[in-house]
């Protein structure tokens, strides 16, 4: 969104005075402490869906690098390693002072420049092996080889084992490094990201199953269609459902419906919307990738497991289910966390981060790891300009003095900012996003809302195959699009979640008045007859006429 800003020799930027910016751990603890307060209205599905979006458009190799490859950044001399960007922990750290942890391992992003592919004379560009568009590449793969590995090549379906009556991707990946001895399952999926965070894993499973369900319906309707036609039609319908839920169900909760309508991110119509712009590059901004990591701050660290009747029977730290797909099919774990996804609130927008998220986000992989400090440091590493620059870009008021921040931040955060930074022009983007009050009718603050809306508008307008337009040969008909608009996340969870019988219509909002739990059978269903190919009937009528009275085929 803005040109990168670096210090000397490509190092992270410094303050306007030339002195170093504040240590990120000290900064984080001063503006966001540890604590647990439940959100009064929102469910875990808000964080689950947002982390899934991140998994769809960005790759996890940088995290794998500092967790499993470049692990010695906190060792003597580690800070001098050009690959490293360790986070210092002060001796008086309020949370870690009684431990011997004085450094958190972190590496710099892998860029084309650092691999020697591009000259160091140009700003660093982070390598991203995921596709930049919302295309469910985490389900279908991001290249031809990965896509082929996921396909059954029969009936348009993805490869699947059947467990407890539900489709699961075949097992066999070695990516689930946190699996325990009796936990053997690990998705052999087109992308390893499917096995990463629990929220990504659950959404991946439901949308994987949704594809196969759609393929079976299309095969039954259209007996003359071959595997390819069924597969790609099912894929397009699945992506359309995913986007409809994201834009018209989740984002009105997160960003505000009126704001989205006014900024033409969504439209109040049932029919097609042709807003494709061939001048726009299909990209995802670094600001979106880093900024939306704010959702970690409303992630509830302790997952409650519920029965289908709504009774809590267990609790598990969410960080202990990372890279641990093998835990899901045993002990009714997936069933319990699925119920919890729409019954348990996420954390509140209160300048607190759950202790497990703030101190041990990587679970067993690192004794101590602070996701919020890492996010601030990653913003510096990627050259993100200061917070005020984005306020200017978004047409928002800019803080010339620290007291100006009181108009959109709590006094405690403003005081902490004034103690940590020399000038308002030094404030990190991520620090500013964390400290802002939520915008009107939104969950996030005004600056992050601007960044997210800008990216969401680009996604829809830069995609020639966007599900709402009718400018490409495979476009949905108007009647088909009207049916797609009936889909909800509740319907997906009813159809493909484990042991879901009752659910609220809007799963992103806690059940209550106007959003009461209801039977799955009461939710709107799609009219699949609108995808019926009438030419198949003619083909099969002719074939059926070639049978004798016993069903034998005549060979001429």
Describe the protein:
The protein has a domain at 41-56 and 132-349 and 446-530: Haem peroxidase domain superfamily, animal type (Myeloperoxidase, subunit C, Orthogonal Bundle). It is built from 18 helices and 12 strands. The chain has helices at 24-31, 44-57, 61-69, 137-140, 144-150, 198-221, 227-262, 286-291, 333-343, 355-360, 371-381, 387-393, 411-420, 429-435, 446-461, 478-484, 489-496, 534-545; strands at 33-34, 38-43, 87-88, 103-104, 161-163, 166-168, 302-306, 312-317, 345-347, 352-353, 502-503, 518-519. Strands 1-10 form a two-stranded parallel ribbon. Helix 6 (198-221) packs across helix 7 (227-262) and helix 6 (198-221) crosses helix 17 (489-496). The N and C termini lie far apart (67 Å).
Total of helices = 18
User: Superfamily at the CATH H level of the domain at 41-56 and 132-349 and 446-530?
Assistant: Haem peroxidase domain superfamily, animal type
User: What's the helix-strand series?
Assistant: HEEHHEEHHEEHHHEEHEEHHHHHHHHEEH
Distance between the termini: 67 Å
Work out the helicity level. Answer: 25-40%
CATH class descriptor name of the domain at 41-56 and 132-349 and 446-530: Mainly Alpha
- Report the β-strand fraction as a percent range: 5-15%
Mean pLDDT: 92
The CATH topology of the domain at 41-56 and 132-349 and 446-530 is Myeloperoxidase, subunit C
Number of E-type strands: 12
Q: What is the name of the CATH architecture of the domain at 41-56 and 132-349 and 446-530?
A: Orthogonal Bundle
Low-confidence stretches: 544-556
What structural class results from the helix and strand content?
A: mainly alpha
Q: Order the strands across the largest sheet as they lie in space.
A: 1-10
Q: Characterize the main sheet.
A: 2 strands, parallel
Shape: globular
Integer-rounded radius of gyration: 25 Å
């Amino acid at each position: 969104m803005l040109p990168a800003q670096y210090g000397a020799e490509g190092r992270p930027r410094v303050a306007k005075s030339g002195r170093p910016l504040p240590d990120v751990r000290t900064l984080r603890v001063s503006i966001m402490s540890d604590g647990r307060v439940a959100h009064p209205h929102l469910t875990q599905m808000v964080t689950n869906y947002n982390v899934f979006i991140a998994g769809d458009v960005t790759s996890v190799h940088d995290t794998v690098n500092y967790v499993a490859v470049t692990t010695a950044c906190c060792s003597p001399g580690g800070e001098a390693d050009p690959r490293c960007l360790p986070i210092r922990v002060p001796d008086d750290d309020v949370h870690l002072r009684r431990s011997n942890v004085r450094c958190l391992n972190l590496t710099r992003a892998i860029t084309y420049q650092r691999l020697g592919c591009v000259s160091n004379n140009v700003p660093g560009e982070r390598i991203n092996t995921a596709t930049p568009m919302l295309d469910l590449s985490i389900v279908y793969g991001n290249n031809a080889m990965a896509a082929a590995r996921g396909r059954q090549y029969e009936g348009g379906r993805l490869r699947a084992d059947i467990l407890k009556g539900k489709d699961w991707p075949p097992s066999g990946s070695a990516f689930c490094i946190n699996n325990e001895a009796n936990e053997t399952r690990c998705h052999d999926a087109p992308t390893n990201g499917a096995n990463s965070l629990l929220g990504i894993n659950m959404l991946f499973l439901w949308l994987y199953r949704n594809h196969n369900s759609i393929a079976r319906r299309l095969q039954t309707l259209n007996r003359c269609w071959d595997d390819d036609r069924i597969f790609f039609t099912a894929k397009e319908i699945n992506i359309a459902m995913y986007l409809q839920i994201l834009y018209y169900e989740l984002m009105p909760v997160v960003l505000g419906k009126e704001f989205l309508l006014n900024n033409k991110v969504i439209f109040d119509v049932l029919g097609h919307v042709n807003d494709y712009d061939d001048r726009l590059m299909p990209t995802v901004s670094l600001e979106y990738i880093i900024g939306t990591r704010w959702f970690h701050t409303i992630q509830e660290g302790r997952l409650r497991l519920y029965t289908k009747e709504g009774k809590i029977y267990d609790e598990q730290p969410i960080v202990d289910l990372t890279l641990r797909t093998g835990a899901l099919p045993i002990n009714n774990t997936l069933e319990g966390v699925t119920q919890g996804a729409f019954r348990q609130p996420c954390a509140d927008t209160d300048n607190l981060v759950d202790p497990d998220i703030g101190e041990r986000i990587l679970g067993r992989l690192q004794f101590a790891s602070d996701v919020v400090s890492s996010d601030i440091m990653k913003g510096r590493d990627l050259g993100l300009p200061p917070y005020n620059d984005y306020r200017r870009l978004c047409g928002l008021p800019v803080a010339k003095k620290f007291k100006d921040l009181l108009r959109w931040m709590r006094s405690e955060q403003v005081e902490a900012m004034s103690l940590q930074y020399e000038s308002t022009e030094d404030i990190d983007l991520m620090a500013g996003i964390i400290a802002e009050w939520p915008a009107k009718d939104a969950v996030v603050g005004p600056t992050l809302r601007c960044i997210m809306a800008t990216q969401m508008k680009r996604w829809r307008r830069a995609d020639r195959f966007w599900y709402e337009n009718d400018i490409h040969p495979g476009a949905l008909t108007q009647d088909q699009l009207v049916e797609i608009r009936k889909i909800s996340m509740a319907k997906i969870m009813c159809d493909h979640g484990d042991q879901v019988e009752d659910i609220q219509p809007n799963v992103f909002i806690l059940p209550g008045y106007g959003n009461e739990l209801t039977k799955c059978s009461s939710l709107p269903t799609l009219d699949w007859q609108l995808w019926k190919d009438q030419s198949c009937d003619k083909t099969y009528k002719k074939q059926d006429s070639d049978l004798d009275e016993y069903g034998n085929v005549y060979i001429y």
